[in-house]
Design goal:
The chain is an all-alpha fold. The chain has 19 helices and six strands. The protein folds into three domains: 221 residues, Up-down Bundle (Growth Hormone, Chain: A), CATH 1.20.1250.20; 73 residues, no CATH class; 214 residues, MFS general substrate transporter like domains (Growth Hormone, Chain: A). Helix 2 packs parallel to helix 8.
């Protein structure tokens, strides 16, 4: 899901303006000959690799377990997966806040990795203990399948949301903690930082590919317990490796979270909403010391920097001057608010992307997946999604961007918003392809009793994967470039919240479609035919409307 094209932008966002804030394990200024560098960065990369293996190994094949083993409906199963992924990404904001405000990146990553290991262990138990599953569905025509009961689902939810809690803490801090191991003021180490991000995204892609091929195969052909057990073991080893390097890391002391500043400005503006604007903006708090020029946009927030009780009459009456926000703080919050239109525009892309993790995997389950004598696991078809992302990442950097530079005569080649717009267009065609394939699949089975080849799913994986290669880098680059300097560290958290909202919107969309069709899911010979084209068409139509805003 990550793209190499963001490497330089992310390096800039992680560069510390205060290298003196870096300390060793004992709180002393760092000795670069004994701390940091590639040894510690490698240990951190191992943690991210393990997190990818765990999360992707769970999410990309979970819907088949929910439908096949727990006998849940396709709609409910899809919503469980999307709610899990949405919560995981949303908790990235919480993880970033905790690290910035209190614990620091190292402690947050260490605790989050331990929580993730606990969650995957619980999931292993939930899928291996016989009492945690309903009885097998041997003859659904005579005896309806028994759905998992509340106790069984409670165990599953506990495991999934424990993983989400840990994964959110890792996601929002591991890249920053890795970049802390290099000194941006040292040209040699700054160059190494760039290579670190390349290796970071390589580890993410490698972990994802391993999960959707090896782990999914083990889950389907050896056993869920073995598949999730390997993930749990991998995460436990990663925690041990991370802790083993404690004395060698470089640490950045917590300096407060930008979310605190945002909350202070918004709440202060609300409390002062009845105050009148001063006749001149230079009467606002620290107007002449502002590092960000005052603007007339979103003037309602300016009230947070109005100095109360500072008139001669107030001083004569003994009215105390309250502590207002500064003009710089208010303008920084304005800049964040101005990001929200693009933030909301991108939500629909991730709604489309979530279909690749849920309904498309379920489609593959009921299609002909044979390749000679070998049957490809349905979850492994996500391999085509990640391969396409890697392919278009390379094409973007080596072919498309240089070509665009010649046409646009700009250093970027394509602007951030143009990349987002291209990604949205790809997502529209991806959902269109998904709709056509689903219509053909259902008609073939209902009319002829045949299953079409699962390789018909490749075009939608290709189109959505290509869209992600554009939309991901464009959105993240836009957030990092447009965010105020002191709030660039929260850009990753803001981006993760977009993914989160996309997954949650998917859950709402599936629920609405399920309700509108009166839950009429076709069942023929233990074969569930989901109303995929309804969901795909709705997502396609909404994405089409949003695409024009993103460009």
């Amino acid at each position: 899901m990550y793209c190499f094209a963001t490497t330089q932008v992310l390096v800039d966002s992680h560069i510390s303006k205060d290298n003196g804030a870096m300390v060793d394990f004992h709180g002393n200024p760092v000795d670069k000959s004994k701390t940091g560098g590639w040894l510690t960065a490698g240990l951190i990369l191992g943690t991210e690799l393990s997190e990818r293996i765990c999360v992707m190994g769970v999410s990309m094949n979970m819907v088949t377990y929910l439908v096949g083993d727990l006998h849940l409906s396709t709609a409910k199963s899809a919503n469980i997966v999307t709610n899990f992924m949405g919560t995981l990404n949303l908790l990235g904001l919480v993880g970033g806040f905790v690290a910035d405000a209190k614990l620091g990146r190292y402690m947050t990553v260490a605790i989050a990795a331990s929580v993730t290991a606990l969650g995957v262990t619980l999931l292993t138990l939930a899928t291996t203990i016989p009492s945690m599953r309903p009885p097998p569905c041997t003859d659904p025509q005579r005896h309806p399948c028994v759905e998992a009961n509340g106790r069984q689902l409670a165990m599953l939810y506990t495991a999934l949301y424990t993983i989400a809690l840990g994964g959110g803490g890792i996601k929002s801090n591991v890249s920053g903690f890795g970049s802390d191991q290099f000194d941006s003021s040292d040209p040699k180490e700054e160059k190494a930082m760039i290579y670190f991000f390349n290796r970071f995204y390589f580890c993410i892609s490698l972990g994802s590919l391993f999960a959707v091929t090896v782990l999914v195969y083990i889950q389907d052909n050896v056993g869920r317990g073995w598949g999730y057990g390997i993930s749990a073991g991998t995460m436990i080893i990663a925690v041990g490796v991370l802790l083993a390097g404690t004395a060698l890391y470089r640490f950045k002391r917590p300096q407060g979270s930008p979310l605190t500043v945002i909350w202070r400005v918004v709440s202060s503006a609300w409390r002062r909403r009845r105050l009148s604007y001063p006749p001149q903006p230079d009467m606002l708090n620290e107007y002449y010391n502002a590092t960000v020029p005052h603007s007339n946009k979103l003037r309602c927030l300016d009230k947070a920097s109005i100095v109360e009780g500072d008139t001669p009459a107030d001083r004569a009456k003994g009215v105390a001057t309250k502590n207002p926000s500064t003009v710089t703080q208010v303008e920084e919050v304005k800049m964040v608010v101005m990001l929200l239109p693009i933030w909301s525009t991108c939500i629909l892309f991730w709604t489309v992307y979530s279909q690749m993790n849920t309904f498309t995997i379920e489609q593959a389950t009921f299609m002909n997946r044979n390749l000679g004598s070998f049957e490809i696991p349905s979850g492994s078809f996500s391999f085509f999604l990640f391969i396409t992302i890697l392919l278009f990442t390379s094409l973007n950097e080596r072919v498309l961007v240089p070509l665009a530079r010649r046409v646009t005569h700009t250093k970027q080649g394509l602007s951030s918003l143009q990349r987002v717009g291209i990604g949205l267009v790809f997502s529209i065609f991806g959902m269109g392809a998904s709709t056509l394939v689903e219509m053909r699949r259902r008609d073939a089975f209902i009319n002829d009793g045949t299953r079409i080849r699962a390789f018909w799913l490749v075009p939608q994986f290709f189109l959505v994967g290509a869209g992600e290669a554009f939309a991901y880098v464009g959105q993240l680059e836009f957030f990092i470039r447009e965010a105020p300097e002191r709030m660039k560290s929260m850009s990753a958290g803001l981006f993760l919240s977009t993914l989160s909202m996309g997954y949650f919107v998917s859950s709402v969309l599936v629920t609405l479609v399920d309700s509108a069709t009166n839950k009429k899911w076709y069942k023929v010979q233990n074969y569930v035919v989901p109303q995929q084209e309804s969901t795909s068409t709705n997502a396609c139509n909404i994405a089409a409307e949003v695409a024009t805003e993103g460009v």
